[in-house]
Amino acid sequence: AQSVTQLGSHVSVSEGALVLLRCNYSSSVPPYLFWYVQYPNQGLQLLLKYTTGATLVKGINGFEAEFKKSETSFHLTKPSAHMSDAAEYFCAVNAGGTSYGKLTFGQGTILTVHP
Amino acid sequence: KAGVTQTPRYLIKTRGQQVTLSCSPISGHRSVSWYQQTPGQGLQFLFEYFSETQRNKGNFPGRFSGRQFSNSRSEMNVSTLELGDSALYLCASSLMAELNTEAFFGQGTRLTVV
Question: Chain A interface residues facing chain B, Cβ-Cβ under 8 Å?
Fold first, then answer.
């Protein structure tokens, strides 16, 4: 069974600082990995995904993530935080096989951006 | 292009009642998944439908059920509501059947059980 661990339920950064949100996964098969963002009272919006191929994945709004199989990690980064980045971020995994439509999510990381 | 539409947005029910939530996927999408989001348990997978067939189910009691219609619209039903069923219920739709396909989420239905 797959699982996802997000280190740090709250991360606080200054505007213009580097954003680093950590995600480690456990999967018995090569996984499909996703990062989603959720703004208050909204659904989830996909930031980026890793399926196969290049391990450095670029997403929307300047975010990127690197798949490191040896570390079972998929950390999300953004070089310079903006106030509008304040939201909750979720890492998710789909383990393939017959896991149709089934995303396993981490517990989420709330990002606060200070002016 | 319209996104995933969930109705109603907010709902208040009494313990013991039943409730039906509706989800209209993006036009052309045939896969619909449902998730429950609570502060304590986070986001948990309920079930997934594709072409009116349930292909996957999470670890929820039988009080939680769903169905998909021929136009891909989906409903989920919760019977004999409990206080612990209070949550944000999210629906997601996908274009293809492949596992790596992006899921588009609706804004959710916030259910409060009193």
Answer: 32, 34, 36, 41-46, 49, 51-52, 90, 92, 94, 96, 98-108
State residue B76 phi and psi, 5-degree precision. Answer: -125, 145
How would DSSP label each residue in chain A? Answer: --EEEEE-SEEEEETTS-EEEEEEEE-SSPPEEEEEEE-TT--EEEEEEE-SS-SEEE-GGG-EEEEEGGGTEEEEEESS--GGG-EEEEEEEE--TT-TT-PEE---EEEEEE-
Query: Minimal CA–CA distance to B85: which of B8, B14, B34?
Result: B14
| Tens-place pLDDT, residues B9-68 | 999 999 999 999 999 999 999 999 999 999 999 999 999 999 999 998 999 999 999 999
Q: Which among B56, B99, B105 has the least Cβ separation from residue A43?
A: B105
